Amino acid sequence: MDPEIDRVTIAGNAGTGKTFMTLAAAFQQTLDAKRFERIVFTRAPIPMGEDIGFLPGTEEEKMSPWMGAFHDNMDNLLRNEEGESSWDNGATRQLIGSRVQIRSPSFMRGRTLNDTFLIIDEAQNFTPKQLKSLVTRAGRNTKIVCLGK
């Protein structure tokens, strides 16, 4: 949350809340405090088992199978006191979708991310060269959070 810190690394075992806390901080700083224009969420699309082959659709649709953690955490972040989530609400998804970009790391080369809260999830799955190419995308007023084990 410190505006003076532009790179954060969070390490921990699965299920310890790394993604949840990072998304909460990202939304607070982007939607509430308006320190950033957008949130960019990326992770390596590495299957656990056999590859399922070609996936049709847009970049975000192709990344969807690897974004289960993102969707689970959004569902939990948007729960009210009664336990109901507004994540399934189309208006909520549209509002958040206008400020959150889910991007494949393969298509980040050549971009400069200004005024961006960049979340690199499952960073341990990247090679040092891949991670460096993501970190060097940071431009003016960009915070990078690397999550992993």
Characterise this structure.
The protein is of the alpha/beta class. The chain has a single domain, classed as P-loop containing nucleotide triphosphate hydrolases (Rossmann fold), CATH 3.40.50. It is built from 5 helices and 5 strands, in the order E-H-E-H-H-H-E-E-H-E. Strands 1-5-4-2-3 form a 5-stranded parallel beta sheet. Helix 5 links the parallel strand 4 and strand 5. Helix 1 crosses helix 3. The longest helix has 15 residues. The radius of gyration is 15 Å and the shape is globular. The chain starts with 6 loop residues before the first strand and ends with a strand.
At a glance:
This protein is of the alpha/beta class. 31% of the residues lie in helices and 18% in strands.
Query: What order do the strands of the largest sheet run in, or round the barrel if closed?
Result: 1-5-4-2-3
Quickly count the domains: 1
From N to C, what is the helix and strand string? EHEHHHEEHE
The CATH homologous superfamily: P-loop containing nucleotide triphosphate hydrolases
